[in-house]
Amino acid sequence: MEKQKQVQKKQSATAIFFEELSKSSGLVTFLAILTGILISGLLVAFTTVEVYQAFSVSFWGGIKEIVKTAWSTYSTLFMGAFGNPKDIVAAFQGGDALTIRRAINPFFESLVQATPYIFAGLSVALGFRVGLFNIGAEGQIFIGALTATYAGYAITGLPAFIHIPLAMLAGALGGAIWGFVPGFLKAKTGAHEVIITIMMNYIAFKFTDFMINGPMQDPNEYTPKTPWIQESAQLTHLFADPIRFHIGFFIALGVAYLVYWLLFKTTWGFELRTVGSNPNGARYAGINTTKSTVIAMSLAGSLAGMAGANEVLGLNFRLVPSFSSGYGFDSIALALLGKNHPLGVVLSALLFGFLRNGSRQMQLKAGVPIDIVSILQALILAFIAAPAIIRTIYRLKKPDIEEEGVRVSGWGGK
Amino acid sequence: MAPLLELKGITKRFPGVLANDHIDLTLEKGEIHALLGENGAGKTTLMNILYGLYSPDEGEIFVNGQKVAIQGPTDAIKAGIGMVHQHFMLIPVFTVTENIMLGEEDVKVGGFLDRKKAAQKIMRISDQYKLNINPNAYIRDLPVGAQQRVEIVKILFREAEILIMDEPSAVLTPQEVDELFKIMRILVDQGKSIIFITHKLREVMDCADRITVIRGGKVVGSTTPKEADTKKLAAMMVGREVELKVKKTKAKPGNAILQVEDLKVLNNQEQFAVDGVSFEVREGEVLGIAGVQGNGQTELVRALTGLLTPAEGKIKILGKDTTKEKPRFITELGSAHIPEDRQKDGLILAFPVSENLVLNSYQHEPFSKGIRLQFDEIDRNGKQLVDKFDIRTPGINTPVSNLSGGNQQKVIVAREFSRPIKLLIASQPTRGLDVGSIEYIHKRVMEKRDAGCAILLVSTELDEIIQLSDRIAVMYRGKILDILNIEDASKEILGLLMAGIKPSEEMKHKVTKEEQLITT
Fold it and tell me: How far apart, in Å, are the Cα atoms of B236 and each of B26, B213, B240, B407?
């Protein structure tokens, strides 16, 4: 191939700025989100009866109705996620503590929703970085929740500053075991981690059900629930009710930094990324790829396990059946959206948290089905996964520099 | 009479780069016209314009004196221009006939493919030009050389008069290259005309009628093999005097560094790819391993470097038994490895240059302390090696994937040579590189030899083996047929050995000073 280097000769600073900007993948991500929002808005409009009624009267009336519907959908979504600015201002002027807390609660609730996403997203992203497709985050979340719950209620008499880390670690350990198994099987036998992690999910779901219905069931309850965890194991809530915001969010941010540090600043991370980027090259460089695979899956499992622990220790305080409504599966999409970078994962986890929380209000107040958020997420991801579409729509240039690729082996690959 | 093909003032700009700068080129009927230039000189761009894959910014194309506008490959084919791409465009699970018919299908009544008619035509073409193609064979069963002939038939099937061949020898063994040149000669003798793109000097000298040299998107000159010599061509190509032959002093071999005893290695199909091989490499000498690709060299190197565990036999490096050791242990002993496939094994393409330069030393001080990588040191090392080894890169943080092949190879060489090494295992160290890079890498290898390093050189390029080696072992079907001192080796003997024939004693004695190819 001939060189097609984009060496710019004479160009103004602005031109260069836009040139660079148009090549960055951050811009593509932003435009993907924007385009997704636009299309979803149209979808909402076209499923609304009023729009058709307005169109039957006049064309411009119909257009107006489309804009109005989309606007009301997204404004309720926004207020559901961040709170109503008017209410917040009024509450602060009124000065009543409970009213203030109610007004600002949506924002903090979004952060609460984002927290398990951060943990689980990190889990999937770490796997991807090492060339492993961890579909098992959901199962690892369940096992993590199970072990954290046990450590939360069975151990008594500890001060919180020991009990909380201990219970979190128990969750991490549970998830790690669940990640270790597919990692070990892949490294030793070549079994594909996708299949093994999917199967491990089912085992985790059923195993959790069994434990909640049997050995770990609260003897004072007739329905399957575990006992309440000790107060000393509960993640500290930072505000009074109804705000559920707890220190788990900050733990998640800390863990995200730790993952970043591990991946990009240490020799271990260097090895893991090398294996993920080019396993042949890694073997050539003398890196033990078997060990890296096992370590990566275990670490990924432990991160997802912490998501489960976070939910139990921070919100529910006991384990009930089907507590995780799909955080693990969403996090696959989320990790891709975040380009498998810890910072990207945190940002997209926030986005998912806001969407998830906002969509409830949207359903309640605007009567728009919650599924529209799934469609929105799906559209954003489709555009992220196919950046060519976004580049074509917005006439963007292709980036010169390949990003550190995610390489996941095909079926049956080693 | 107007020439068969005439390109006038072809100019093609890519953002910031002038890939073709007013190029004029003529092709007469019945000639092989070689287009010679380094990687990135603009040869392929020019041919892609001719084949309609790019449109030129300026310039005109004439075929038989008529101006033609070539908007796409269809127009090119209509104008009688066909192209054999460097990477074949064949479907492995289809037969030869099916592949050739693709896009030009003859149908019988009812829309059924008329394979018979096509096969007959293919046979006719194959016989006429002595291409030796079986129309009913499946592509996946054919060796690379035969696949290339299928590509040629594909073009002739479409009645092309002008054949463009883009680096046709890159994927072939030396024997297949000779075969190809014979075929090219037959083609032009029967009236076809060929544009032959290459960066290999020996090839243009062997087969071209006319040579046009391109450098930096411009035509630097035109000549014929009779008027030119390789040295002059190389200078035209690179733009400066090039040492085609490295200065070689007599080897002063010392102690054995690498000892291999009766080594047997299995390949993926559980066959003995290396079948009882014994040799040793001493400090200060180059042992060349010659042989046609696929005779066990790959597996031998992988076993020596710890990437494959041998089935039987013994490997000793610096007196230590490393038969069952892992790559890291062998590397840390002071052994370096330039892998056969630099992109697959030798580099992490997505990683920056600086990190690739510490790929097997990141775990040591100063590049890391404990588990913390020391990026200041890694960057400093990167800058230093980029300067010292003249790696052309926009910066040390550029991903290696953005570098040219030659510079990628330099990254590997810089990394391996900057460590204190006692043994170098170099596998195809100059494959696919241009003259300038080859010169550079050969020089560095000889420097290492003279500094007392033991070097095992594996190459399918016989010229390279002869130039650099002090002793030459020839591998054939997993066995070493013979190990010759360079004084006793001639191209003829090596060629026979590579084909699996042991030359008679009397032939060996016939080697005289004149026959030695070391001097050319």
Answer: 19, 7, 7, 21
